[in-house]
Structures are given as structure tokens and as C-alpha cells.
Amino acid sequence: MAEPLFRGVGVALATLFDDAGELDAKATAGHAATLVDLGVRAVVVAGSTGEAATLTPEERIALLIEVRRTVPSGVPVLAGTGAPSRRQAVALTRAAVDHGADALLVLSPPGSVGLRSYYGSVADAASGLPVLAYHYPKSSQPGIPVELLPELPIQGAKDSSGDPERLLAELDTFDGWLYVGASSILTMAGALGCTGAILAVANVEPERAKAAFAGNAAAQRALFASHAAARSDFPHGLKRLMAERFGTSRTARLG
Fold this sequence. Notes:
By secondary structure, the protein is an alpha/beta fold.
């Protein structure tokens, strides 16, 4: 495999909206830059944490352009391009490639039907950019079978299930880059040799997330309160925590 896209902790970037619920791309990009200054190694825009389902194609492009313009060039910006259908995912992928994405994070479709053709079409549309398959059953059931990962035309995967046994199986069977998306198993993931993590909680506590992945058990335990608060009332819990620390908007479109 080629050198990983990044190692360490990346952020699943929350999308910021103004009081009227309109996209605030500049504020979102500014938040991303702040997180990079605090140690985040990569930024994902328009993923599940970014309320991607509420964004128009034009908003996705505006967000990607602004974040890529604002974040230092050495920090990869990934675009979330997963969709319910192969046709939609291909269109989103092509748009992301055309507007500056460094890689694609692609959620599996509901029902996980035809995963080989789904990811094959996305890989073709990616025009050589890295594709990370995204396993997140809570958002799109049932996700990606572990045994299928080595057969997909992907460079890496993100697993947000938080399942330690699945993580061990992935490490045993998949040779690509492996990123975890659950902050509850960061220390374990780092110790086992995972490539990195892509986290919602990095919107709030990038320093602790980085320390936990590096093996700091106290940081892992200290992250739990934010982890629980962000998950209990998503996205409102996460945006509350962000507002308290960084003064960002609490407005959400979901819920």
C-alpha cells in the first residue's frame, strides 16, 4: 500500500449554519482551521457528522471549496460522497473531485446491496483519488461485511461501529488504511496499530483525542463525557459542546 493519506486524528467536521439555518461555509472552514492548529491531521466535510443529508449539491461544493481554501495545503480534505444509490454517489464523487477534494469517504448504501459495483463505480469516478469505504450501521444498515473489505477497490476504510471484535477482524483481514470513528476505543485502536481516527468529538476535544490515540488512558477516560454528550442528542449535543468551547453556532438542520 502507498503511504497513508494521514496518520493520527482527523475530524469529522460539523457543518455550521447561521441563525436562519443557512450554510455558513466561512465559519465552518474557520473552525476546521482552528482544529488543525490544535493538532487535527485531516478534515472530512459533508460526512454524517456534517449533517450531509440536509445539504444541497451546491452547498456541498461551497463547503468543500471554502474548507480546502482555508485549511493548510498539507492537511488532506476528504469529502463525504456516500449516497442511497450508486448513481448519486458517483455524481457526488465527481463533483468533489472537480472541486478540490483530496480523497473520498463513502458510506455504504442502505441494505448494502451490490457493494462491489457501488464502490467500483465510485472508484472510477474518483479518478485516482483515494477512496475510504465507510462502515456505520447506525446511519446505514447493515454496513460492510468485514470479509468483503479486501475485495473492494478502496485504499482504506473508516469503521464507526465501535465494535472491538470487528476492529480485530478488520486488522486481521484488511491490509488497507484503517481509521476508527468511535472515540470510545481510541486507545485500543492506537495500540493495535490502526492508521488513525476520524472523529466527531475532535470538533470539541482534538487534544484529548490525539492523546488517547497515542496511548494516554487518562485522556481516553476524560473523553467519555464529551463522547456521551455528543451522541445523546445528535447533532445538538455536539454543537452545544462546540459553542461552549469555541463560540460557534448551535444551529442544526437535523432534529
